[in-house]
Amino acid sequence: MKQSVIIKIFFSILIIVGGAVQGQTGYHKRSLKTEKRVTPHHNHHHNKKLRATKRYKRSRVVVVKKRRGRTLSVLPKGVVKIHHNKLDYHYHAGRFYRPNASRYAVIIPPRGLRIKSLSPKAHRFMWKNRNYFYHYGTYYIKKDQDFESVRAEEGMIVPSLPSELVEEISIDDQNYFELDNVIYQRVEEGYKVVGELED
Fold this sequence. Notes:
The chain is α+β, with helices and mostly antiparallel strands. Helix content is 19%, strand content 41%. The chain contains two helices and 17 strands. The strands form three sheets. Strands 1, 2, 13, 14, 15, 16 and 17 form a seven-stranded mixed sheet that branches. A five-stranded antiparallel sheet has the order 3-7-6-5-4, with no helix packed on it. Strands 8-12-11-10-9 form a five-stranded antiparallel sheet, with no helix packed on it.
């Protein structure tokens, strides 16, 4: 009788100990699962910086062919005088002039200058979902009832450049064209903006 009681007690102890061990093992397994490290997902598109126009140091530039420039002794008839940032400019048929000694030099206008109408030869194109206009080395956007001159952006392609205002240059043995500090490369469709010179 005593022996059977002892045996029952012994098996009861084994069952209790075994259950406790199994419970602890299951706890650790669950803990390992919950402690698994999750790598955060980064939104690369959200953090991506806007691409800036590439800038070249003037010290790297080698002039291959200097710009010729163009001047007039008398302004053409029908010229329009524009006052911008305390300076006077003359505009006619898509070209701008500034006094140069006793003559008038053909120039690229400063950014921000506005005109009432464009030359009928102006080239229109879409860039980043916006209409741009280009003529004789100058880029424009429509502003209210005017056309405002703006900077060129890297990647833009235009059909031509004013040859008398362009300087042929070389940077790191690569040939380019420079106009108003903007650097162009000849491509099949015309001339592509690839950067600008540092001020």
